[in-house]
Amino acid sequence: MKRVDFFVSEREIERLCKAIRQAGAPGYSVMRHVTGWGVAGEISEAMDFSGLGANAHVVVFCDADAIAALQGVVRPLLERFGGVGFVSEAEKF
Amino acid sequence: MQSTLVLQNLLSAPVLFFFLGILAVVLGSDLEIPSPLPKLFSLYLLLAIGFKGGVELSHSGLGSMVLLTIAAAILMSLLVPISSFYILRPRLGADNAAAVAAAYGSISAVTFITAQSFLNVVKVPYDGFMVAALALMESPAIVVGVVMAKLAASRLEPSPGGPSGGKEPIPWPEVLREAFLNGSVFLLIGSLVIGGLVAYFSPSGVERMEPFTEKLFYGVLCFFLLDMGLVAAQRLRDLRQTGPFLVAFAIAAPIVHAFIGLLIARLLGLPQGDALLFMVLSASASYIAVPAAMRMTVPHANPSLYITTALGLTFPFNVVVGIPLYMALVQRFIPVA
């Protein structure tokens, strides 16, 4: 079992979720209003009024063989709009 | 510039609340407005101004003056981003130049509303149809910005191995969706149409809306400008990224664009109040619709550049200095009706 964490702008969340479903992942969880600090500087909710909100954190748990499909559809999105993804091992509780 | 105009503007409640927001950041206060509220205030202001504009447009009708003014406004929203793009591109590159140019071709509804409240203070009348010009100036600049970025990219940075022979096609559905279905543009135009329909077919509905669209309006504007003061002051930290050229552009561009707006207003024979609003529309830069649209359509442009210049520099300049400056020019060059 693998765990994939994505951090993207809230503005791109719909595209990302669509791509994850397209890759055949069994499910995902979305946490909005994620603030912090990264390569693009401070991530805050200050510009929320304009539709440029904070970041979202998307977590996917899937089998190891689904990772390639996920990379195939999500990587172009991350390259185009920015954002990061991390894969780690997970164990069912 | 007449000192009374400056004082009347500086001592108006919205501008004072804007300063209070800036002061809070400068002094390190923990004043913070919960994030859903500014979004709500922004939507409220767009709904209220759109509705009121629709009502007044219904009363004034679509005469030749109205249509000419709207056409001139759309022309400005096409010319400003094109000229700005060519000024900015040598220094910023195609993507950043296109995004900043789109911001300056588009408008700031809050600057427009602040100018309206200034006209109320100085008791200079204005026409409601100017809201239609406001609504229709937002989208063309977004389209021009994206087209300029894509055309420049296809000419200057060919990628021979690319799927379309090195030329990346303009994603028209995405561009048009962002330009016309962007939440703020959609709400403003929709409220304008609803205001017009209600005023024409059900005039009592206008009266029923008044407690919401009239009585609350000034207070919400003050609250929103308090938040804008907070956000604008926080954005000033990013000025190090923009550099002196862009800082100079953010101050010079509104003055030049306002002056062109003044010439057009005089050519059209607009009365003083409408002339000021036309100048403000020409001079202001978008920090609501355009950043969101540019993020989706020109994602490689640096948001720090187009948000910081539009929100951190041009918006405060217009609200504090620009409006009384433009009014002084109006009083000098536009005859009293």
Topology:
The complex is a heterodimer of chains A (93) and B (337).
Chain A (H helix, E strand, L loop, with lengths): L1 E8 L3 H10 L6 E6 L1 E3 L2 E3 L11 E8 L4 H15 L2 E6 L4
Antiparallel strand pairs in A: 1-5, 1-6, 2-5, 3-4
Helix pairs in contact in A: 1-2
Chain B lengths: L2 H8 L2 H15 L8 H25 L3 H29 L1 H12 L3 H13 L8 H27 L15 H9 L2 H19 L1 H13 L1 H19 L3 H30 L3 H12 L5 H9 L5 H31 L4
Helix pairs in contact in B: 1-15, 2-11, 3-7, 3-9, 3-10, 3-11, 4-5, 4-7, 4-12, 5-7, 5-15, 6-13, 6-15, 7-8, 7-9, 7-13, 7-14, 8-14, 9-10, 11-15, 12-13, 12-15, 13-15
Outline the structure in words.
The complex is a heterodimer of chains A (93) and B (337). Chain A contains two helices and six strands; from the N terminus they run E-H-E-E-E-E-H-E. Chain A has one domain: Alpha-Beta Plaits, CATH 3.30.70. In chain A, helix 1 runs antiparallel to helix 2. Chain A is globular. Chain A is an alpha+beta fold. The longest helix of chain B is centred in the last third of the chain and has 31 residues, at 303-333. The relative contact order of chain B is 0.19. Chain B is built from 15 helices and no strands. Chain B has one domain: Na+/H+ antiporter like fold (Up-down Bundle), CATH 1.20.1530. Chain B has helices at 3-10, 13-27, 36-60, 64-92, 94-105, 109-121, 130-156, 172-180, 183-201, 203-215, 217-235, 239-268, 272-283, 289-297, 303-333. At the A-B interface, loops of A face helix 3, helix 11, helix 14 and helix 15 of B.
Keywords:
heterodimer; A: 93 residues; alpha+beta; Alpha-Beta Plaits; 2 helices; 6 strands; B: 337 residues; mainly alpha; 80% helix; 0% strand
